[in-house]
Amino acid sequence: MSGRFGARLAEQVAAHGPLCAGIDPHAPLLAAWGLADDAAGVERFGRTVVEALAGHVACVKPQAAFFERHGSRGVAALERVIADARDAGLLTIVDAKRGDIGSTMAGYADAFVGDSPLAGDAVTVSPYLGFGSLRPLLDLAAERGRGVFVLALTSNPEGASVQHAVGADGRPVARAVAEAAAAENAGAAPFGDVGLVVGATVGPAVAGLGIDLDAVNGPLLAPGVGAQGATAADLQQVFGDARRLVLASSSREVLAAGPDPAGLRDAARRSADAVRAALAV
Ligand SMILES: O=C(O)c1cc(=O)[nH]c(=O)n1[C@@H]1O[C@H](COP(=O)(O)O)[C@@H](O)[C@H]1O
């Protein structure tokens, strides 16, 4: 791994388009792929996606939950998927969505951005114990050149009850998260290593909450494209002038084309082309 996460991601997006393919081995997808719903099944699933998409997409995002549901052997499978991706030169965002008090966050930092085999190129985290609680993980990620994606406006409808709420300082909570991320990325080029998660499904919320996403100057991971109903065109409305920072994410829509590697590549290519076209407008 050489160079900082933001710079490496920018290079991959330039080469392959602004799409991150999720690796979410849901039980129905395992069945559709003819795989058992066990640790060996999720391992085969994940490694197949990596082998098919390495060199064809900007990055992959293994969803830790679907590996963890098989206990320690599932976690070992996740480690092997991450190792395969690293060997293949494919960037990984480990979707673990961790968040805890600062002293415990230091443990998650070691696990996901330190020396552990669970560390990919970046990790997703939740700031809803307070953005400051993420500090140990942000610091270790910065030291190692890894990336962090902080949940801001999530793609699920329930998220608004927390994220749109106005905090004690008068700012909507999601806006405060965005401004804290912007402070981490100040001065970085082409952009920094601290990204936000902003669902492609959030409609007019960004503008409505007064959030300046362009000022974040970090990658904006946009899940919700495909299975959750958002289209590439929704990205234009949600992201406005911050389109240069968007990394759309899609899992089930791409994965449904497997296990045939050519089918996975075609589905990823179609999604990446649609996203690139929508963001170019
Ligand atoms: O952090 C994420 O990736 C994420 C944040 C969010 O707000 N919404 C969201 O759907 N995700 C993840 O993105 C993936 C979406 O999968 P599909 O709906 O199948 O494309 C899942 O792994 C979710 O956990």
UniProtKB/TrEMBL annotation:
<dbReference type="InterPro" id="IPR018089">
    <property type="entry name" value="OMPdecase_AS"/>
</dbReference>
<dbReference type="InterPro" id="IPR001754">
    <property type="entry name" value="OMPdeCOase_dom"/>
</dbReference>
<keyword id="KW-0665">Pyrimidine biosynthesis</keyword>
<dbReference type="GO" id="GO:0044205">
    <property type="term" value="P:'de novo' UMP biosynthetic process"/>
</dbReference>
<keyword id="KW-0456">Lyase</keyword>
<dbReference type="Pfam" id="PF00215">
    <property type="entry name" value="OMPdecase"/>
</dbReference>
<feature type="active site" description="Proton donor">
    <location>
        <position position="97"/>
    </location>
</feature>
<comment type="similarity">
    <text>Belongs to the OMP decarboxylase family. Type 2 subfamily.</text>
</comment>
<comment type="pathway">
    <text>Pyrimidine metabolism; UMP biosynthesis via de novo pathway; UMP from orotate: step 2/2.</text>
</comment>
<protein>
    <recommendedName>
        <fullName>Orotidine 5'-phosphate decarboxylase</fullName>
        <ecNumber>4.1.1.23</ecNumber>
    </recommendedName>
</protein>
<keyword id="KW-0210">Decarboxylase</keyword>
<feature type="domain" description="Orotidine 5'-phosphate decarboxylase">
    <location>
        <begin position="18"/>
        <end position="267"/>
    </location>
</feature>
<dbReference type="InterPro" id="IPR011060">
    <property type="entry name" value="RibuloseP-bd_barrel"/>
</dbReference>
<dbReference type="InterPro" id="IPR013785">
    <property type="entry name" value="Aldolase_TIM"/>
</dbReference>
<dbReference type="InterPro" id="IPR011995">
    <property type="entry name" value="OMPdecase_type-2"/>
</dbReference>
<dbReference type="GO" id="GO:0006207">
    <property type="term" value="P:'de novo' pyrimidine nucleobase biosynthetic process"/>
</dbReference>
<dbReference type="GO" id="GO:0004590">
    <property type="term" value="F:orotidine-5'-phosphate decarboxylase activity"/>
</dbReference>
